[in-house]
Write a structure and sequence with these properties.
Elements: E1 2-5, H1 8-11, E2 19-23, H2 29-42, E3 46-47, E4 54-60, E5 63-69, E6 75-76, H3 78-87, H4 89-92, E7 95-96, H5 97-104, H6 111-116, E8 120-122, H7 130-143, H8 147-158, H9 163-173, E9 175-177, E10 182-183
Parallel strand pairs: 1-4, 8-9
Antiparallel strand pairs: 2-5, 2-7, 3-6, 4-5, 9-10
Helix pairs in contact: 7-8, 7-9, 8-9
Length: 191
């Protein structure tokens, strides 16, 4: 099973996907996946012995939320799922991905907006201390009107498991540049 931490900005780039978002999912994400699979199986929502194997975790409005994507791995009775979502809304605040992005995040980003939201940031040649690089990237984001992204990036960097992972997270938010070079996929290309 794959549980991936993402940002609300990542959600805004998922205009070709759909899924169900549950809000207020504190605790172990694996427990949520297991619980949703069991609940949906018992309710006749999951078909053909399929189950959710992937989920995305993100924070918004001081809530931990989970996105269960509808992909070719899971077969659903969408009528029963829609009824479950309406009946259980007071408990799980379940909503479709497309509705959540439209109503809480200002809509999906067009492809050209993806690129605009990633400003250039000179990190090559700077002191390589991860906190220094994070600070430079954070200031760059804030100077470009991306205060929320700066906060998300810092949170993800400080909870990352390694220096390389932290550098790659920074590269998701800014176009890493040096004096003469531009790196758009983090530092992976220089390693």
């Amino acid at each position: 099973m794959a549980i991936k931490n993402i940002t609300t900005n990542d959600l805004r780039k998922m205009n070709d996907k759909e899924g169900i978002i549950l809000q207020g999912c504190g605790g172990d994400p694996q427990g949520w996946i297991d619980g949703v699979n069991e609940m949906f199986k018992e309710g006749g929502i999951l078909l053909d012995d399929t189950k959710f194997t992937d989920a995305y975790v993100f924070d918004n409005d001081n809530l931990t939320c989970m996105l269960f994507p509808f992909d070719n791995k899971v077969h659903l009775n969408t009528s029963k799922l829609a009824m479950w979502r309406l009946q259980m809304y007071p408990i799980f605040a379940g909503t479709w991905l497309s509705d959540y992005v439209a109503n809480k995040l200002g809509g999906f980003l067009a492809e050209e907006q993806h690129q605009k939201e990633k400003p250039d940031c000179k990190l090559i040649g700077e002191d390589g201390n991860i906190f220094n690089l994070m600070g430079i990237a954070s200031r760059t984001l804030k100077q470009n009107g991306l205060k929320d992204e700066a906060k998300e990036m810092c949170s993800r960097v400080t909870s990352s498991g390694s220096y390389c992972e932290a550098l790659n997270i920074i590269g998701e938010y800014v176009n890493i540049t040096g004096d003469d070079e531009e790196y758009t996929d983090g530092f992976e290309q220089s390693m």
